[in-house]
Design goal:
169 residues; mainly beta; eight-stranded antiparallel sheet
Amino acid sequence: MRVQDIIRGKKLNLSIGDWGSGKAPKAKFPLSKAGKKAWSFGSAWEWRFAEFTCEGRQFVIRILVCDDKSKAHIHLGLKQGNDTTVVCCYEYHADHVTGWHLHTLCGEQNEIDTAPRGTLVHGPWVKRLPAARASHRRTTFNREAHGGLKAFLWSETVRFFRLDKDVFG
C-alpha cells in the first residue's frame, strides 16, 4: 500500500476527537523512537486526532496548530500495535513563506510497510512536495474562516486526506 492509496482510498469508521491544548495523549499517536520534540510543543499549541480504517488497516491523523507562530502540522500515521508509522506530514509554516507542502515517503520506500516505525517523517526516502523553491498552489492560513482557524484546519484536513462524508461506509 502506498501513501496515495490511503489518501484516495475508501475510509471507514471515522472517529473524530475534540480539540485539546497542553499535553496531548501519547497513546493516541504513539512514537516509540521519537524524542521529546515529537511531543514537547508548548501550551500555545492545540491538537486534534481522527482515526479511520482503510483497506482493513487502522490510521490516525494528528493535527497540531499554533496560531501565534502560524504553524500547522497534520500527520498521517499507520497504527501498528503500540506504535505508529508516520507516512506523511502536510504542513504550513509562515516563516517558510511558501505555503502548504507535504513531506512524504517516496521512491522505493513509498510502500508504507517499509517505512520506519515509531518516528516522525525524515530520512533520505522522504520527499517534500512541492519542492522548497517551487511554486505552491495553496498558500492560505485562514484565521478569518467561518468558525476560525481550527475550523479552517479541519476543513483542510478533510479536503487533503479526502475524509469526505460520502466516502464513509
